[in-house]
Amino acid sequence: MRAMTDTTPHTSLGAPTPGSLPFAKMHGLGNDFVVIDLREGLERPGAALIRALGDRHRGVGFDQLALIEHADDADLVLTFHNADGSLSAACGNATRCIAAQEMARTGKMRLSIRTGRGYLLAEDAGGGLTRVNMGAPLLDWRDIPLSEAMDTLELPIEGVPVATGMGNPHCTFFVEDAEAVPLEQFGARYEHHPLFPERTNVEVVQVLSRDAIRLRIWERGTGVTQASGSCSCAAAVAAARRGLTGRKVAVHVDGGTLEIDWREDGVWKTGPTEHVFDGWVSPAFLAAHR
């Protein structure tokens, strides 16, 4: 019998079995992702498998799933899915995580990445940080989209939130104390508000100073998250539009701090990334959830 103190690894845990699905687990400030590289000819996962993988008790668990593909017009293509299997055009932290890995692999300092949001530029910001231009914010009601014409700076909803598009819709509430908001109930309530035909991410923001905000996040299709790149961008844009901050702010989320800089060429987001581990989904799990 193997002694309890013997740390010799079991060989059966060290290698994939034929037919298994390789993936990487990454996170940006606790906003976590499963990343599958389809460039090696792997089959694209269906919605049932994505939901099963996203289960934190019976699967791997993630806020978003990211798929990497080849591109003729960019360094790579990224597609994002929420934990409920739905598509998301933008996922800023996953974009940064994958960009950091790809730059380390290729030796490049800049990447062009095609997403549902459009073409994004990623850069090595030095000091272990990665920077991504998330593009110009969408401020017209049609582009976010909302269900009817209105001023996106003051929505006719209790709390008078701001609507912003970052390739996905956002609804930002400004409050005196972000910690006091019961986010699970609050976020679930407004994600499905009829003004947002595609549902919405929900942000609760407390302004700390002209260059810092506290942000708590409910992500559409996922729930409460420790961080979100697109939500951080939307919250910073909303605060600047309201005149509550400047256009460059430190955004303090549950998982740490991102720097958001709304420039003329788009909203730049800078922060750390981490590649946690590589693994394999078993053939039996794949077969059970096709």
Please tell me about this protein's structure.
The chain is globular. 18% of the residues lie in helices and 38% in strands. The protein has a 17-stranded mixed sheet that branches. Residues 1-11 have low confidence and may be disordered. With 290 residues, the protein is of the alpha+beta class. A hairpin with a 2-residue loop joins β11 and β12.
Q: Tell me how many strands there are.
A: 17
Sheet with the most strands, sense and barrel status: 17 strands, mixed
Predict the CATH topology of the largest domain. Answer: Diaminopimelate Epimerase, Chain A, domain 1
The helix-strand sequence is: EEHEEEHEEEEEHEEEHEEEEH
How many individual helices?
5
Which shape, going by the Cα principal axes?
A: globular
Which ranges are low-confidence, i.e. pLDDT below 50, for 5 or more consecutive residues?
A: 1-11
Radius of gyration: 20 Å
Quote the beta fraction.
Answer: 35-45%
- Oligomer class: single chain
The CATH H-level superfamily of the largest domain is Diaminopimelate Epimerase, Chain A, domain 1
List keywords for this structure.
290 residues, alpha+beta, Diaminopimelate Epimerase, Chain A, domain 1, 2 domains, 17-stranded mixed beta sheet, disordered N terminus
